[in-house]
Automatic annotation (TrEMBL):
This is HIRAN domain-containing protein. InterPro entries: HIRAN. It comes from Hymenobacter psychrotolerans DSM 18569. Residues 7-108 form the HIRAN domain. GO terms for molecular function: hydrolase activity, acting on acid anhydrides, in phosphorus-containing anhydrides; nucleic acid binding; zinc ion binding. SMART domains: HIRAN. The lineage of its organism: Bacteria, Pseudomonadati, Bacteroidota, Cytophagia, Cytophagales. Keywords: Hydrolase, Metal-binding. It comes from the Bacteria.
Length: 109
């Protein structure tokens, strides 16, 4: 999807990266420009609009979440069946926090 025309719906940081086991070891595989997947988590006990951010691969790595308070529209679009994805735009370590910036994308046909 990274090469297909798309509308950027949201630019944000991925929340909760410090809580993802194995992410420090996986981080070198993450490259700016790579496609990411979004997955609704409607049964979340913490956020009614929870959306997971994962790598887009058969052995998908769960990276974290769209930030609470900025995720409702994306969650509603996913619930309605829109084929949303994401793209990693930047990564950097800040102490123990992996700072991941992404764009949420809607394909344009």
């Amino acid at each position: 999807m990274a090469d297909a025309p798309a509308l950027v719906l949201l630019e944000c940081l991925v929340a909760g990266t410090t809580h993802r086991p194995g992410l420090r070891d996986y981080e070198p595989k993450l490259q700016p420009g790579q496609s990411l997947a979004l997955e609704r988590e409607p049964a979340s006990a913490y956020d009614d609009w929870a959306v997971r951010v994962l790598t887009d691969a058969p052995d998908a790595m769960w990276l974290g979440y769209l930030p609470e308070g900025r995720n409702e529209t994306i969650a509603r679009l996913l619930d309605a069946g829109f084929p949303l994805s994401a793209r990693l735009t930047h990564k950097a370590w800040e102490d123990e926090w992996l700072h991941l910036e992404i764009e949420v994308l809607l394909p344009i046909k």
